[in-house]
Recover the amino acids of this structure.
């Protein structure tokens, strides 16, 4: 839906440029691995957006909204512990458990939660904890995310997580190495652009359900434990807010620091649906999702046409961008010089 709505908008704008005789270039970027792979970070680092005046994006959502939502900067990494395997009953004294390293690290990081800014987020999963209880595991891996709305705070928290890993390795007689998997900037808002998108999204409006779609949506709402479906949320556009709390992260963050960037959400999911749930996938795969996708495509198109039609909007957006970014800003990707992974799950 991401790619299709954006490609549809790019084609519509191209046709409009031709028909209206207006001057300008519309460019469509295919950005893979939005969720975890962070392709836009590498694309930003390689300068593929550096000759762009304005970048537009959207994201599937449970509501239609173009508020200047924040997003958290994020560093994710895999910590790999190596120990010595041995028979867990016959010769435990010969072994050094890599899983002990992971567990000791997690205990320390969980204690650390009390002593970090409270808006921060840390989460982990143990991606490898050994294979059999009767074998001391010589390898274990834990996958961490650290987030905050300021990337300098994320860098600091991440360096403390690394220290916890080093301490855990020391104390358990194991060794630890880590690999940064992804790192994204927070979102830099642009109110000139957000207000423009909000006015277009409001003019286009939300979606209305057919009786069949309503029946489907009611089932989804029920599966989410809701008493009743709040259909109005899909039909309406949320009031504009100049700041909105959001705890997710996106690789659009990096784009927003190299070019004035604007985004919004369209109701491709049934109201109340959380992201990363099967319910989000289910409505994305049927006509509710397609209707939301069309709202997104039309909003992108209308906004691009407005920008091509009134160059002063671009100038104002650029002025706000420079002011918010600061004159001494230097773009430093949180992934450093890491090469993009062909398979980010590895
Ligand atoms: Zn996403």
């Amino acid at each position: 839906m991401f790619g299709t709505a954006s490609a549809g908008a790019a084609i519509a704008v191209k046709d409009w440029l031709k028909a209206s005789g207006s001057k300008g270039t519309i460019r469509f970027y295919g950005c893979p691995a939005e969720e975890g792979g962070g392709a836009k970070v590498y694309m930003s680092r390689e300068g593929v957006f550096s000759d762009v005046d304005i970048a537009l994006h959207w994201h599937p959502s449970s509501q239609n909204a173009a508020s200047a939502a924040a997003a958290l900067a994020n560093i994710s990494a895999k910590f790999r512990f190596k120990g010595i395997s041995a028979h867990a009953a016959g010769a435990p004294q010969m072994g050094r458990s890599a899983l002990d390293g992971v567990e000791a690290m997690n205990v320390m990081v969980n204690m650390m939660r009390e002593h970090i800014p409270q808006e921060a987020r840390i989460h982990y999963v143990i991606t490898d904890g050994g294979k059999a209880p009767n074998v001391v595991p010589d390898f274990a891996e834990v996958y961490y995310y650290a987030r905050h709305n300021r990337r300098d705070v994320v860098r600091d928290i991440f360096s403390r997580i690394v220290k916890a890993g080093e301490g855990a390795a020391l104390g358990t007689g194991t060794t630890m190495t880590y690999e940064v998997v992804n790192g994204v900037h927070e979102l830099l808002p642009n109110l000139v652009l957000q207000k423009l998108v909000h006015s277009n999204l409001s003019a286009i409006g939300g979606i209305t359900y057919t009786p069949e779609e309503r029946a489907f949506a009611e089932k989804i709402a029920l599966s989410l434990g809701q008493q009743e479906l709040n259909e109005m949320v899909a039909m309406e556009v949320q009031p504009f807010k100049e700041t909105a709390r959001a705890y997710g992260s996106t690789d659009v963050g990096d784009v927003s620091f190299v070019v004035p960037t604007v985004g919004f959400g369209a109701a491709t999911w049934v109201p109340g649906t959380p992201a990363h749930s099967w319910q989000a996938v289910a409505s994305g795969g049927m006509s509710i999702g397609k209707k939301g996708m069309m709202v997104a495509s039309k909003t992108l198109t209308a906004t691009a046409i407005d920008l091509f039609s009134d160059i002063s909007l671009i100038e104002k957006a650029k002025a706000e961008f420079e002011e918010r970014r600061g004159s001494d800003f230097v773009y430093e990707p949180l992934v450093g010089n890491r090469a993009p992974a062909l398979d980010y799950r590895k």
Residues 2-71+187-325 form a domain with the Aminopeptidase fold (CATH 3.40.630.10). The chain has eleven helices and eight strands. Residues 34-35, 59 surround zinc ion (CB under 6 Å).
